[in-house]
Design goal:
With 334 residues, the chain is α/β, with parallel strands linked by helices. It has helices spanning 51-54, 129-142, 158-169, 181-189, 204-209, 225-234, 264-267, 284-296, 313-320, and strands at residues 3-10, 23-30, 37-46, 75-82, 92-95, 102-106, 111-112, 149-152, 173-178, 194-197, 216-221, 235-243, 271-274, 304-308, 328-332. The structure holds NADPH dihydro-nicotinamide-adenine-dinucleotide phosphate (NDP).
Length: 334
Protein backbone atom coordinates (compact mmCIF):
# COMPACT_ATOMS: atom_id res chain seq x y z
CA UNK A 1 0.00 0.00 0.00
CA UNK A 2 1.26 3.49 -0.85
CA UNK A 3 2.65 5.53 2.04
CA UNK A 4 0.69 8.72 2.74
CA UNK A 5 2.48 11.99 3.45
CA UNK A 6 1.00 15.17 4.86
CA UNK A 7 2.64 18.35 3.57
CA UNK A 8 2.38 22.10 4.19
CA UNK A 9 1.30 24.22 1.24
CA UNK A 10 1.27 27.98 0.82
CA UNK A 11 -2.40 29.03 0.83
CA UNK A 12 -1.85 32.74 0.21
CA UNK A 13 1.06 35.16 0.28
CA UNK A 14 1.40 36.59 3.83
CA UNK A 15 1.03 40.33 4.29
CA UNK A 16 3.07 41.65 7.22
CA UNK A 17 3.54 39.11 10.02
CA UNK A 18 2.66 35.65 8.61
CA UNK A 19 -0.29 33.77 10.16
CA UNK A 20 -0.87 30.01 10.44
CA UNK A 21 -3.89 30.57 8.16
CA UNK A 22 -1.53 31.53 5.32
CA UNK A 23 -0.72 27.81 5.07
CA UNK A 24 -2.74 24.61 4.64
CA UNK A 25 -2.15 20.90 5.12
CA UNK A 26 -2.49 18.56 2.13
CA UNK A 27 -1.94 14.82 1.73
CA UNK A 28 -0.26 12.93 -1.09
CA UNK A 29 0.28 9.22 -1.80
CA UNK A 30 3.86 8.06 -2.19
CA UNK A 31 4.19 5.02 -4.49
CA UNK A 32 7.27 2.80 -4.71
CA UNK A 33 10.46 4.57 -5.79
CA UNK A 34 11.41 4.30 -9.47
CA UNK A 35 14.89 3.43 -10.77
CA UNK A 36 17.56 5.63 -9.14
CA UNK A 37 15.08 6.89 -6.53
CA UNK A 38 14.50 6.43 -2.81
CA UNK A 39 11.43 6.71 -0.59
CA UNK A 40 12.25 8.66 2.59
CA UNK A 41 10.33 9.24 5.82
CA UNK A 42 11.32 12.59 7.33
CA UNK A 43 12.32 12.60 11.00
CA UNK A 44 13.04 16.32 11.46
CA UNK A 45 12.54 19.49 9.45
CA UNK A 46 14.12 22.89 9.73
CA UNK A 47 12.14 26.13 10.13
CA UNK A 48 14.03 29.16 8.82
CA UNK A 49 13.45 32.93 8.65
CA UNK A 50 14.80 33.23 5.07
CA UNK A 51 11.68 31.38 3.88
CA UNK A 52 9.70 34.58 4.47
CA UNK A 53 11.43 36.09 1.42
CA UNK A 54 10.39 33.13 -0.74
CA UNK A 55 6.73 33.80 0.12
CA UNK A 56 6.93 37.10 -1.81
CA UNK A 57 6.42 36.89 -5.57
CA UNK A 58 9.66 38.49 -6.79
CA UNK A 59 12.87 37.40 -8.48
CA UNK A 60 15.57 36.34 -6.02
CA UNK A 61 18.49 33.92 -5.66
CA UNK A 62 15.87 31.17 -5.20
CA UNK A 63 12.47 31.19 -6.96
CA UNK A 64 9.40 32.17 -4.88
CA UNK A 65 7.08 29.51 -3.42
CA UNK A 66 3.93 29.06 -5.49
CA UNK A 67 0.41 29.23 -4.06
CA UNK A 68 -1.03 25.74 -3.54
CA UNK A 69 2.37 24.07 -3.71
CA UNK A 70 4.20 22.39 -0.83
CA UNK A 71 6.98 24.42 0.77
CA UNK A 72 10.53 23.09 0.76
CA UNK A 73 13.31 23.34 3.31
CA UNK A 74 16.03 21.40 5.08
CA UNK A 75 15.09 17.97 6.46
CA UNK A 76 16.65 14.84 7.87
CA UNK A 77 14.96 11.53 7.19
CA UNK A 78 15.36 7.79 6.96
CA UNK A 79 15.29 5.73 3.77
CA UNK A 80 12.25 3.42 3.76
CA UNK A 81 12.85 1.88 0.32
CA UNK A 82 15.69 2.41 -2.11
CA UNK A 83 15.90 1.68 -5.80
CA UNK A 84 19.48 2.94 -6.09
CA UNK A 85 22.69 1.13 -5.06
CA UNK A 86 24.03 4.20 -3.21
CA UNK A 87 21.31 4.05 -0.53
CA UNK A 88 19.99 1.27 1.69
CA UNK A 89 16.87 0.98 3.84
CA UNK A 90 17.54 2.66 7.20
CA UNK A 91 20.15 5.13 5.93
CA UNK A 92 19.83 8.63 7.41
CA UNK A 93 19.82 11.34 4.75
CA UNK A 94 19.70 15.10 4.58
CA UNK A 95 17.61 16.71 1.86
CA UNK A 96 15.81 19.86 0.86
CA UNK A 97 12.42 18.05 0.94
CA UNK A 98 11.19 19.33 4.29
CA UNK A 99 7.67 20.57 5.14
CA UNK A 100 6.32 17.05 4.43
CA UNK A 101 6.30 13.74 6.22
CA UNK A 102 7.82 11.75 3.39
CA UNK A 103 8.89 11.96 -0.24
CA UNK A 104 10.38 10.16 -3.23
CA UNK A 105 13.47 11.70 -4.81
CA UNK A 106 16.46 10.78 -6.95
CA UNK A 107 19.20 9.36 -4.71
CA UNK A 108 21.54 11.97 -6.21
CA UNK A 109 19.54 14.69 -4.41
CA UNK A 110 20.05 13.08 -0.99
CA UNK A 111 23.15 13.34 1.19
CA UNK A 112 23.94 10.53 3.60
CA UNK A 113 24.65 11.92 7.06
CA UNK A 114 28.33 11.70 7.97
CA UNK A 115 29.10 9.48 10.96
CA UNK A 116 29.74 12.14 13.60
CA UNK A 117 28.93 11.98 17.26
CA UNK A 118 25.75 14.09 17.13
CA UNK A 119 22.00 13.42 16.88
CA UNK A 120 20.49 13.52 13.36
CA UNK A 121 18.76 16.87 13.86
CA UNK A 122 22.13 18.52 14.57
CA UNK A 123 22.64 18.36 10.79
CA UNK A 124 19.86 20.96 10.49
CA UNK A 125 21.52 23.20 13.08
CA UNK A 126 25.04 23.27 14.45
CA UNK A 127 26.40 20.83 11.83
CA UNK A 128 24.10 22.02 9.04
CA UNK A 129 23.07 25.18 7.24
CA UNK A 130 22.94 27.52 10.29
CA UNK A 131 26.33 26.22 11.44
CA UNK A 132 27.87 26.80 8.03
CA UNK A 133 26.29 30.27 7.91
CA UNK A 134 27.90 31.20 11.23
CA UNK A 135 31.26 29.60 10.40
CA UNK A 136 31.66 30.89 6.84
CA UNK A 137 30.13 34.31 7.49
CA UNK A 138 32.23 35.06 10.53
CA UNK A 139 35.54 33.52 9.47
CA UNK A 140 35.62 34.22 5.75
CA UNK A 141 33.86 37.60 5.63
CA UNK A 142 34.31 38.91 9.19
CA UNK A 143 37.96 37.82 9.44
CA UNK A 144 38.08 38.18 13.24
CA UNK A 145 41.45 38.46 14.96
CA UNK A 146 42.22 37.71 18.60
CA UNK A 147 41.43 40.80 20.67
CA UNK A 148 38.83 42.14 18.18
CA UNK A 149 35.40 43.13 19.41
CA UNK A 150 32.67 41.21 17.57
CA UNK A 151 29.03 42.34 17.80
CA UNK A 152 26.41 39.63 17.10
CA UNK A 153 22.71 40.50 16.79
CA UNK A 154 20.03 37.81 17.11
CA UNK A 155 22.53 36.10 19.39
CA UNK A 156 20.10 33.61 20.97
CA UNK A 157 19.10 32.20 17.58
CA UNK A 158 20.47 29.25 15.62
CA UNK A 159 23.07 31.23 13.70
CA UNK A 160 23.81 33.97 16.24
CA UNK A 161 24.49 31.61 19.15
CA UNK A 162 27.12 29.81 17.06
CA UNK A 163 28.73 33.07 15.88
CA UNK A 164 29.10 34.10 19.55
CA UNK A 165 30.88 30.85 20.40
CA UNK A 166 33.14 30.77 17.33
CA UNK A 167 34.17 34.39 18.03
CA UNK A 168 35.07 33.40 21.61
CA UNK A 169 37.08 30.42 20.32
CA UNK A 170 38.99 32.92 18.14
CA UNK A 171 39.82 35.03 21.21
CA UNK A 172 37.46 37.95 20.61
CA UNK A 173 35.53 40.22 22.96
CA UNK A 174 31.88 39.49 22.12
CA UNK A 175 28.95 41.85 22.55
CA UNK A 176 25.47 40.71 21.58
CA UNK A 177 21.74 41.39 21.56
CA UNK A 178 18.77 39.15 22.31
CA UNK A 179 15.06 39.69 22.95
CA UNK A 180 14.45 38.49 26.54
CA UNK A 181 16.27 38.30 29.89
CA UNK A 182 16.28 34.48 29.67
CA UNK A 183 17.94 34.65 26.27
CA UNK A 184 20.45 37.23 27.56
CA UNK A 185 21.40 34.84 30.39
CA UNK A 186 21.79 31.95 27.93
CA UNK A 187 23.99 33.96 25.53
CA UNK A 188 26.17 34.98 28.49
CA UNK A 189 26.47 31.32 29.44
CA UNK A 190 27.86 30.70 25.94
CA UNK A 191 30.71 33.08 26.73
CA UNK A 192 29.53 36.46 25.43
CA UNK A 193 31.09 39.29 27.41
CA UNK A 194 28.30 41.88 27.21
CA UNK A 195 24.70 41.06 26.22
CA UNK A 196 21.87 43.56 25.81
CA UNK A 197 18.12 42.88 25.90
CA UNK A 198 17.26 45.12 22.94
CA UNK A 199 13.58 45.21 23.91
CA UNK A 200 14.10 46.72 27.36
CA UNK A 201 17.46 48.51 27.22
CA UNK A 202 16.11 51.91 26.16
CA UNK A 203 18.97 53.35 24.14
CA UNK A 204 20.43 50.46 22.12
CA UNK A 205 23.53 52.36 21.01
CA UNK A 206 24.42 53.46 24.56
CA UNK A 207 23.76 49.98 25.96
CA UNK A 208 26.01 48.33 23.36
CA UNK A 209 28.75 50.98 23.65
CA UNK A 210 29.37 49.91 27.26
CA UNK A 211 30.75 46.61 25.99
CA UNK A 212 32.86 48.07 23.17
CA UNK A 213 35.10 50.82 24.55
CA UNK A 214 37.46 50.53 21.56
CA UNK A 215 34.66 50.14 19.00
CA UNK A 216 33.43 47.14 17.03
CA UNK A 217 35.79 45.42 14.59
CA UNK A 218 33.28 42.88 13.23
CA UNK A 219 29.49 43.20 13.17
CA UNK A 220 27.57 40.00 12.30
CA UNK A 221 24.13 41.27 11.30
CA UNK A 222 21.12 38.98 11.63
CA UNK A 223 18.64 41.76 12.32
CA UNK A 224 19.16 44.94 10.25
CA UNK A 225 17.21 48.12 11.09
CA UNK A 226 18.17 49.85 14.33
CA UNK A 227 20.81 47.18 15.08
CA UNK A 228 22.66 47.95 11.85
CA UNK A 229 22.48 51.69 12.52
CA UNK A 230 23.88 51.19 16.04
CA UNK A 231 26.68 49.03 14.64
CA UNK A 232 27.59 51.64 12.01
CA UNK A 233 28.02 54.19 14.83
CA UNK A 234 30.15 51.81 16.88
CA UNK A 235 32.38 50.42 14.14
CA UNK A 236 36.11 50.93 14.55
CA UNK A 237 38.31 51.97 11.62
CA UNK A 238 38.61 49.26 8.94
CA UNK A 239 35.82 47.21 10.56
CA UNK A 240 33.94 44.46 8.71
CA UNK A 241 30.14 44.19 8.59
CA UNK A 242 28.87 40.70 7.73
CA UNK A 243 25.35 41.03 6.29
CA UNK A 244 23.76 37.68 7.05
CA UNK A 245 20.10 38.69 7.36
CA UNK A 246 17.69 41.39 8.46
CA UNK A 247 14.81 39.73 10.31
CA UNK A 248 13.54 43.06 11.69
CA UNK A 249 12.49 44.07 8.17
CA UNK A 250 11.34 40.75 6.66
CA UNK A 251 7.67 41.50 7.35
CA UNK A 252 7.77 45.18 6.31
CA UNK A 253 4.86 46.04 4.04
CA UNK A 254 6.76 48.86 2.34
CA UNK A 255 10.51 48.80 1.60
CA UNK A 256 12.43 49.46 4.82
CA UNK A 257 14.62 52.57 4.77
CA UNK A 258 18.37 52.03 4.46
CA UNK A 259 20.62 52.90 7.41
CA UNK A 260 20.54 56.69 7.80
CA UNK A 261 24.17 56.74 8.89
CA UNK A 262 25.64 54.64 6.06
CA UNK A 263 28.34 57.23 5.37
CA UNK A 264 30.22 55.77 8.34
CA UNK A 265 31.26 53.14 5.79
CA UNK A 266 33.20 55.83 3.93
CA UNK A 267 34.63 57.75 6.86
CA UNK A 268 35.78 54.65 8.76
CA UNK A 269 37.05 52.65 5.77
CA UNK A 270 34.54 49.87 6.50
CA UNK A 271 33.80 46.79 4.42
CA UNK A 272 30.18 45.63 4.34
CA UNK A 273 29.53 42.31 2.58
CA UNK A 274 26.49 40.11 2.23
CA UNK A 275 26.41 36.42 1.37
CA UNK A 276 24.21 33.41 0.70
CA UNK A 277 25.40 30.38 2.67
CA UNK A 278 25.81 28.23 -0.48
CA UNK A 279 28.84 30.36 -1.29
CA UNK A 280 30.69 28.53 1.52
CA UNK A 281 30.10 25.04 0.08
CA UNK A 282 33.85 24.63 -0.50
CA UNK A 283 34.39 25.09 3.27
CA UNK A 284 32.27 22.03 4.14
CA UNK A 285 35.19 19.78 5.10
CA UNK A 286 36.98 22.21 7.45
CA UNK A 287 33.59 23.28 8.81
CA UNK A 288 32.56 19.74 9.79
CA UNK A 289 36.00 18.99 11.21
CA UNK A 290 36.25 22.18 13.28
CA UNK A 291 32.66 22.00 14.51
CA UNK A 292 32.87 18.36 15.54
CA UNK A 293 36.23 18.98 17.26
CA UNK A 294 34.80 21.99 19.10
CA UNK A 295 31.67 20.05 20.09
CA UNK A 296 33.88 17.20 21.33
CA UNK A 297 35.96 19.65 23.37
CA UNK A 298 32.83 21.19 24.93
CA UNK A 299 33.49 24.55 23.23
CA UNK A 300 30.24 24.65 21.24
CA UNK A 301 26.82 24.19 22.80
CA UNK A 302 23.39 24.50 21.26
CA UNK A 303 19.69 24.60 22.09
CA UNK A 304 16.68 23.43 20.12
CA UNK A 305 13.08 24.62 20.21
CA UNK A 306 10.99 21.69 19.02
CA UNK A 307 7.37 21.48 17.81
CA UNK A 308 5.76 18.14 17.13
CA UNK A 309 4.00 17.20 13.89
CA UNK A 310 4.01 18.70 10.40
CA UNK A 311 0.66 20.40 11.12
CA UNK A 312 2.45 22.63 13.66
CA UNK A 313 5.17 23.77 11.24
CA UNK A 314 3.28 26.95 10.18
CA UNK A 315 3.01 28.08 13.83
CA UNK A 316 6.71 27.32 14.32
CA UNK A 317 7.48 29.55 11.34
CA UNK A 318 5.31 32.40 12.66
CA UNK A 319 6.98 32.03 16.07
CA UNK A 320 10.39 32.91 14.60
CA UNK A 321 9.17 36.48 14.22
CA UNK A 322 7.99 36.80 17.82
CA UNK A 323 11.18 35.32 19.23
CA UNK A 324 9.54 32.17 20.61
CA UNK A 325 12.63 30.10 19.79
CA UNK A 326 15.92 29.80 21.62
CA UNK A 327 18.50 28.23 19.33
CA UNK A 328 17.37 26.18 16.35
CA UNK A 329 13.64 25.99 15.52
CA UNK A 330 12.79 22.42 14.49
CA UNK A 331 9.72 20.31 13.84
CA UNK A 332 9.87 16.64 14.84
CA UNK A 333 8.04 14.56 12.28
CA UNK A 334 8.42 10.97 13.42
P1 LIG B 1 16.86 32.52 14.61
O1 LIG B 1 17.02 31.19 15.24
O2 LIG B 1 17.77 33.62 15.03
O3 LIG B 1 15.33 32.94 14.81
C1 LIG B 1 14.87 34.20 14.60
C2 LIG B 1 15.10 35.12 15.82
O4 LIG B 1 15.12 36.46 15.35
C3 LIG B 1 13.99 35.11 16.85
O5 LIG B 1 14.11 34.09 17.79
C4 LIG B 1 14.06 36.50 17.47
O6 LIG B 1 14.91 36.47 18.61
C5 LIG B 1 14.78 37.32 16.40
N1 LIG B 1 13.88 38.38 15.90
C6 LIG B 1 12.65 38.22 15.36
N2 LIG B 1 12.13 39.42 15.02
C7 LIG B 1 13.07 40.35 15.37
C8 LIG B 1 13.13 41.77 15.29
N3 LIG B 1 12.11 42.48 14.76
N4 LIG B 1 14.22 42.41 15.74
C9 LIG B 1 15.24 41.70 16.29
N5 LIG B 1 15.26 40.35 16.38
C10 LIG B 1 14.17 39.69 15.93
O7 LIG B 1 17.01 32.37 13.06
P2 LIG B 1 18.34 31.90 12.29
O8 LIG B 1 19.46 31.79 13.23
O9 LIG B 1 17.98 30.73 11.46
O10 LIG B 1 18.60 33.12 11.30
C11 LIG B 1 19.19 34.32 11.78
C12 LIG B 1 19.35 35.29 10.63
O11 LIG B 1 20.26 34.74 9.66
C13 LIG B 1 18.06 35.57 9.88
O12 LIG B 1 18.06 36.93 9.50
C14 LIG B 1 18.17 34.68 8.67
O13 LIG B 1 17.39 35.11 7.59
C15 LIG B 1 19.66 34.78 8.40
N6 LIG B 1 20.22 33.68 7.61
C16 LIG B 1 20.95 33.99 6.50
C17 LIG B 1 21.55 33.03 5.77
C18 LIG B 1 22.35 33.41 4.57
O14 LIG B 1 22.69 32.55 3.76
N7 LIG B 1 22.70 34.69 4.42
C19 LIG B 1 21.38 31.60 6.09
C20 LIG B 1 20.65 31.36 7.33
C21 LIG B 1 20.07 32.38 8.05
P3 LIG B 1 14.79 37.59 19.79
O15 LIG B 1 13.91 36.99 20.84
O16 LIG B 1 16.20 37.78 20.21
O17 LIG B 1 14.16 38.81 19.18
Amino acid sequence: MAMKSREIRLKNRPVGLPKPGDFEVGTVDLPDPGPGQALVRNLWMSVDPYMRGRMIDRPSYVPPFQIGEALTGGAVGQVVKSNDPSLAEGDLVESFFGWREGFIAPAAMLTKLPKLNAPPQAFLGVLGMPGMTAYGGLLRIGEPKAGDTVFVSGAAGAVGSLVVQIAKIKGCNVIATAGSDEKVAWVKSLGADHVVNYKTCGNLLAALAQGAPKGVNVYFDNVGGDHLEAALELMALKGRIVLCGGISVYNAETPAPGPRNYLNIVGKNLRMEGFVVSTFENMREPFLKDMSDWIGAGKIKWEETVKDGVENAPQAFVDLFTGANTGKMLVKLA
